[in-house]
Amino acid sequence: MTQPGDAVWEARRKSFGAGADNYRKGRPGYPRDVLEQCLPTGAREVLDLAAGTGPLTAGLLELGLSVIAVEPDDEMRALIPAPAKAVAGAAEAIPLPDASVDAVFVGQAWHWFDIPRAVAEIRRVLRPGGVLAPMWNLFDADDPLCGVLGEVGPDECSVNMLGDDAGPPFESAGLFSEPRRIVTHYSLPYTRDRVAALVASMSVAILASPEDREQMLAKVRDAMPDGEFSLSWICETWVAVAQ
Questions:
Q1: What is the mean pLDDT of each run of 10 residues along the chain (243 residues)?
Q2: How far apart are CA 242 and CA 234, in angstroms?
Q3: Could you give the C-alpha distances from 235 to 11, 107, 135, 139, 191, in angstroms and in order?
């Protein structure tokens, strides 16, 4: 994975607006039971930070929550589903008052943050006892179809990111409890076109030359079966409570 601050990292994290429509079509949501496990008792108002086009926002709305979706990219933010309140902003400068939300969720974006600054900002906007929950959907490397996709997007593949000895993605810094890990296996229906949209929404495809992108998408399409089929996913989540 590229590292925060280097030129490739900067280009990748700012690239997603160019693939906003593919992101909306191809990216999965997050398992309902994982979202429920993360919520503190009595939670009503939550923040989806770096919301993208809102796949996580949609799941939070389905739970009956009041959702603020903060997203820096105009093209991505325009596709966030109503009735969430979509707001321009970033993890390092969240445009919310102190102690204003019960939980902060981050889907597929934590690695694009300046993490020490983001942790302090997230703690600022959380109410005491509120929850921080960064999460990732990863291709399940044990699924042959996902194995093909993992070759295209290695940052998204479980074989490269998961491990029994994996540590939390941030230091609690006295602001949060020690993060606990939740790992959930699940599957979702896909078609060849939706898989192509999924791959086209990745920074590795967005930043590729037109010729390389077409070759990449053709390879993925050829590897997928006809009709509707299932893709296996692993959702990795880390949950910490504001102190």
A1: 64 74 96 98 98 98 98 97 97 98 97 95 98 96 92 84 82 94 96 96 92 94 96 97 97
A2: 26
A3: 26, 10, 7, 9, 20
As a residue count, the chain comes to: 243
Q: Hey, what are 164's tokens?
A: 């029994």
Check: CB of residue 238 under 8 Å from CB of residue 178.
Answer: no
Does the pTM surpass 0.85? The reply is: yes
Rounded Cα distance between 84 and 183, Å, is 27
Q: Which two tokens stand for residue 8?
A: 């490739």
Contact residues for 118 (Cβ-Cβ < 8 A; gap 6+): 91, 92
Q: Which amino acid is at 105?
A: F
Copy the structure tokens of residue 193.
Answer: 């076109």
Burial class (CB in 10 A: 0-12, 13-18, 19+), 195: buried
For the chain, list the strands marked E by DSSP: 45-49, 66-70, 85-87, 101-107, 126-139, 180-190, 229-241
Residues with Cβ within 8 Å of 151's Cβ and at least 6 positions away in sequence, in order, are none
- From the number of C-beta atoms within 10 Å of its C-beta (0-12, 13-18, 19+), residue 211 rates as exposed
In the block, residue with structure tokens 């934590």: 110
Residue 42 CA to residue 128 CA, distance in Å, equals 13
Assign 3-class secondary structure to 113-182: CCHHHHHHHHHHHEEEEEEEEEEEEEECCCCHHHHHHHHHCHHHEHHHHCCCCCCCCCCCCCCECCCEEE
